[in-house]
Structure formats: structure tokens, C-alpha cells
């Protein structure tokens, strides 16, 4: 029986409030409005940013909400004005929009956009407009996506059509982790052939950053993490050295400086911790070292002593992989994904 034009009832993991377990609920998913796409989510990953909102950010106006922003699915129906997508298309919902018209979209210097959920501020991690209801009340859509639901509705400017043969349980990671880490190394840090890099944090984003450094031709990639079980996996993606800060009595920046004759050329912080951000910066060689903040947090100020920057280091941030500016709602082929 067709669901087109009808409200869909489906299961979703609802976060009713901060610091509490998610609850599997039956929610109502409205029909897609103008320029919107309703899709069936086939696969989703769990990103630290979901946990950050639930356990760290905890903004009172950010609940109830359906979390999840790293998914892939199939278009179920489209709203008025949608011409580039049709039912049956395989797609990835994206937490970064591209309207194609704003100041950011018109610039080759960034992949950010003034439209979408983030235009209202990052505190709630959601737009106040939602297509979800549960138990008679509105439920927010996390970063405009909400992939912890069997169905979701997303604006067409935040959807990428992918190759029909793409395995959704794998390419869902392109919705955040892979693009964020790989792009931070290649687009934002601009890792150079023959360089030495350090990647702090070996989750999905960190492993993708390792992969990006390797793809860019780095000769030495130092993986830094408190969990030694992650080191073998990092080696598969191109890491050459492994450092556990718990194995050393001195600051990790000093450890890396001694290992690299004064510091690494590039460092990437993929944790979302302001202390690690400072360590990553101070692990870079003075004169030309570049450190990129990749991990998400907005709770504390980040600080370092001015001499760290006066000495020639560069401190940058990267959002969803940074500068590579593509038309999100164009088809992504398997060749591009690889």
C-alpha cells in the first residue's frame, strides 16, 4: 500500500531529555513540504556529536529530539518543487546544506551554507521546524537529518544522490565521519607529500584523517589515542607510528617533538576536547606547522600562549571536510566515493 501523500507512522529512537536513555517510540512523520524529500533510512552510524548533544551540550531547548546524522536511505516521496530526486533514488542526508545562492555557497573557500538548520544557531543542534511528532508533541530533527528514525524528511539542499549500486550500510559513513576526517587532512590542512603528521583520536573521523594523510603522501603518520586496541586498525589506514599518552610522563606535545626533531608538519585533533586541541597545536613544528581542529565541541574556550602562533604555527578549523565545494544534490558516483 502506497505511503505517498500520507503521514507515516514508524519507529524512532527519541531522546526526551538530556542524560537519559533513548526510547524507541512510534512517531508520526509528516508528508514532505515544498522542496523537501521524505526518505526511508536503511543504515545509520553513531557519531560522537550525537552523544555530545545528549551528554555534554544538553541544551534545554534541544529536546525532545531524534538524533542521528550519518545515514543513508531511499527516497520514498518528494514535495512540490523537487525535480532532481525521485522515489527509489539512493541518497545520503547531509547536516551541511548547499542552497547554491548564499555568500558561502558562492565562494570556493568554504563548503558551508547560510541556509539549513544551523542558520538558527548551534546551541539546540536543530531547527525549530520539524516534520516529527510523538505523543502529541513536536520532536526536533537533529541537524536537520535525524537518521535514528525509520523515515525522515530533509530539505533537498541537504541531500546527495548516490550511485544506485552503492551499499548503503557502508556509504552511510560518508554522511559525516569519512568526509569530515579525510577532508580535514586533504582540504583544510593540505597535507603535503613527504610530510610528518599526527592524528589525535582514532574514532571514525580520526581514522579517516589518517587515510587522508596517507592519500596526500605523508611519509610518517603518528596516531595518538588512549586506547591501544585502535592502533592496528589505524595501521591499515596508513598510520606508521602509535603513541598512547598514558605511556608517558611528559606532555604529549613534548613526546612528539622529540620523535620528530622539533614537531610535526601537520596535526589533526579529532576528539572534540579543548585540551587535546592545544596539545595538537603545540605538537606542530614552529615556523610552518599547521594544526586543524576537527572534533566538535562548544562548551569551553580553547587557549594557547601567543608565542605558539607568533612562532609561525597556524591554527585552523574544519567543518565536514572543509573547502572542497561540490554540488551536494548532484549524483555521487562510486568512483568519487572511492
Automatic annotation (TrEMBL):
Domain Alcohol dehydrogenase-like N-terminal stretches = 34-161
Q: Where is the Alcohol dehydrogenase-like C-terminal domain?
A: 204-323
Obligatory cofactor(s): Zn(2+)
Q: InterPro entries this protein is in? A: ADH-like_C, ADH-like_N, ADH_Zn_CS, GroES-like_sf, NAD(P)-bd_dom_sf
SUPFAM superfamilies per record:
GroES-like, NAD(P)-binding Rossmann-fold domains
- Which GO terms of type biological process are on file? formaldehyde catabolic process
Report if keyword Zinc is assigned. yes
GO molecular-function annotation terms? S-(hydroxymethyl)glutathione dehydrogenase [NAD(P)+] activity; zinc ion binding
**Superkingdom as given in the UniProt entry:** Eukaryota
Q: What is this protein called?
A: Alcohol dehydrogenase 8b
Q: Which GO terms describe its cellular component?
A: cytosol
Membership in a protein family: Belongs to the zinc-containing alcohol dehydrogenase family.
Sorted keywords for this record are:
Metal-binding, Oxidoreductase, Zinc
**Matching Pfam families, A to Z?**
ADH_N, ADH_zinc_N
Amino acid at each position: 500500500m502506497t505511503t505517498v501523500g500520507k503521514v507515516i507512522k514508524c519507529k524512532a529512537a527519541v531522546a526526551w531529555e538530556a542524560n537519559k536513555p533513548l526510547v524507541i517510540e512510534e512517531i508520526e512523520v509528516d508528508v514532505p513540504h515544498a522542496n523537501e524529500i521524505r526518505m526511508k533510512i536503511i543504515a545509520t552510524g553513531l557519531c560522537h556529536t550525537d552523544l555530545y548533544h545528549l551528554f555534554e551540550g544538553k541544551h534545554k531547548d534541544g529536546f525532545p529530539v531524534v538524533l542521528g546524522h550519518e545515514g543513508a536511505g531511499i527516497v520514498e516521496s518528494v514535495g512540490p518543487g523537487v525535480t532532481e530526486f525521485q522515489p527509489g533514488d539512493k541518497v545520503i542526508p547531509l547536516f551541511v546544506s548547499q542552497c547554491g545562492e548564499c555568500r558561502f555557497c558562492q565562494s570556493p573557500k568554504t563548503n558551508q551554507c547560510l541556509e539549513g538548520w544551523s542558520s538558527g544557531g548551534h546551541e539546540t543542534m536543530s531547527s525549530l521546524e520539524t516534520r516529527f511528532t510523538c505523543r502529541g508533541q513536536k520532536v526536533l530533527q537533529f541537524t536537520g537529518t535525524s537518521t535514528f528514525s525509520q523515515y525522515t524528511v530533509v530539505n533537498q539542499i541537504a541531500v546527495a544522490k548516490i550511485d544506485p549500486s552503492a551499499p548503503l550500510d557502508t556509504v552511510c559513513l560518508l554522511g559525516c565521519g569519512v568526509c569530515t576526517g579525510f577532508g580535514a587532512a586533504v582540504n583544510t590542512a593540505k597535507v603535503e607529500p613527504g610530510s610528518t603528521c599526527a592524528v589525535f583520536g582514532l574514532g571514525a573521523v580520526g581514522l579517516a584523517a589518517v587515510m587522508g594523510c596517507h592519500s596526500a603522501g605523508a611519509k610518517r603518520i603518528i596516531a595518538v589515542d588512549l586506547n591501544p586496541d585502535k592502533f592496528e586498525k589505524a595501521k591499515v589506514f596508513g598510520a606508521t607510528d602509535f603513541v598512547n599518552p598514558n605511556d608517558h610522563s611528559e606532555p604529549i606535545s613534548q613526546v612528539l617533538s622529540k620523535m620528530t626533531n622539533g614537531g610535526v608538519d601537520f596535526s589533526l585533533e579529532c576528539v572534540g576536547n579543548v585540551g587535546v586541541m592545544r596539545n595538537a597545536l603545540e605538537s606542530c613544528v614552529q615556523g610552518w606547522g599547521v594544526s586543524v581542529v576537527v572534533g566538535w565541541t562548544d562548551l569551553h574556550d580553547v587557549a594557547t600562549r601567543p608565542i605558539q602562533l607568533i612562532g609561525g604555527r597556524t591554527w585552523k578549523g574544519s567543518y565536514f571536510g572543509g573547502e572542497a565545494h561540490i554540488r551536494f544534490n548532484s549524483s555521487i558516483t562510486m568512483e568519487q566515493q572511492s
